[in-house]
Amino acid sequence: MSAKLIDGKKVAEITMNLLKEDVVNWVNAGNRRPFLKVVQVGNDPASTTYIGSKTRACRQVGIDTDTTHLPDTVSAKELKAAIRSFNEDDLIDGILVQLPLPSHLSSHDVIESIDHRKDVDGFHPMNVGRLTVDQPTFRSCTPAGIFELFQYYSIQVKSKHAVVVGASNIVGSPMAIMLSRENTTGKATTTICHKFTKDLTSHTIAADILVVAAGQPNLIKAEMVKEGAVVIDVGINRVADETSDKGYKLVGDCDFEGIRKKASWITPVPGGVGPMTVAMLMKNTLLAAKKSIYPED
Ligand code: NAD
């Protein structure tokens, strides 16, 4: 078997074009353009790259954005005061604090200081909580993007055995929640694995749908995957590559070449899940502007 490729770049492009039309219709109906406020603390190069791609995506779909850049010495009090002022600004629809934060800042604390009605990353406990009780919510962008890919390629999730490797608050855990809900999204029987899981292979080999978000290059090898499985590789890892000008290349968490001979569907890295994450951020920002999740009284 040779797996079919899940082309996240193409699906993201289609999604972005549809969103662009939605934004035009929204503005033509007499509304101002949606506005996304990005907050960057410090100068982490990867964060700067991610913010660059989010800013370009905003431009592409017609969403206004700017980035407030704070030094990595900023105190929790100062950062939360800035966020509070963005919460109160009616011209700001969505707020995104780029993670990771410097170690003296608690990301939980900072995320909770964002008004949940502007939490377009879907990380606020209110939005995560609503996800678990089947209520409309800002869905975390990476899992939401993976569900768009399932839908686009008509990949059946219902009643399948889904296994998620990785249990972080931003990817693995919301992915597992969405896969497992019986009344809304996934309707799959779901197993969550993490670094304390014993005998990882005994779980991954049983997966019809395998989602890997561990941040460990080459963690999942062909012999750990069931014949015909759908494999979604969320990992983005920099590994040394002397043939590249940058001196590194991006790889996922899966042995792509080995697994593609066994799986039915597979996402490449790059060009798989990554572009969908940014597209879902745009979608959430438009939902925030329209007050679709939390209508005003
Ligand atoms: P994280 O470090 O916060 O969490 C990693 C999770 O993987 C943890 O739950 C940990 O227990 C688990 N894990 C680590 N080693 C493991 C092992 N050997 N066996 C089983 N479980 C193991 O990372 P994260 O923020 O969830 O990101 C995971 C990966 O996904 C990273 O490579 C990150 O760059 C990437 N990512 C990609 C996108 C995208 O849009 N494609 C978005 C977010 C994160």
Describe this structure in words.
- It contains ten helices and eleven strands.
- The radius of gyration is 19 Å and the shape is globular.
- The N and C termini lie far apart (55 Å).
- The longest helix has 21 residues, at 8-28.
- It has two domains: 30-115, Rossmann fold, CATH 3.40.50; 141-275, 3-Layer(aba) Sandwich (Rossmann fold).
- It has 297 residues and is of the alpha/beta class.
- Bound molecules: nicotinamide-adenine-dinucleotide (NAD).
Key words describing this protein structure:
297 residues; alpha/beta; Rossmann fold; 2 domains; 6-stranded parallel beta sheet; 3-stranded parallel beta sheet; 39% helix; 16% strand; globular; binds nicotinamide-adenine-dinucleotide
Series of H and E elements: EHEHEHEHHHEHEHEEEEHEH
- CATH architecture term of the largest domain: 3-Layer(aba) Sandwich
**Helicity level, as a percent range?**
25-40%
- Straight-line distance between termini: 55 Å
What number of domains? Answer: 2
CATH class of the largest domain: Alpha Beta
Question: Topology, please?
Answer:
Layout lengths: L3 E2 L2 H21 L6 E7 L3 H17 L2 E7 L5 H13 L5 E4 L9 H7 L11 H8 L8 H12 L8 E5 L6 H9 L8 E5 L6 H5 L4 E4 L17 E4 L3 E4 L7 E4 L4 H5 L4 E2 L6 H18 L7
Parallel strand pairs: 1-11, 2-3, 2-4, 5-6, 5-7, 7-8, 8-11
Antiparallel strand pairs: 9-10
The structure holds nicotinamide-adenine-dinucleotide (NAD).
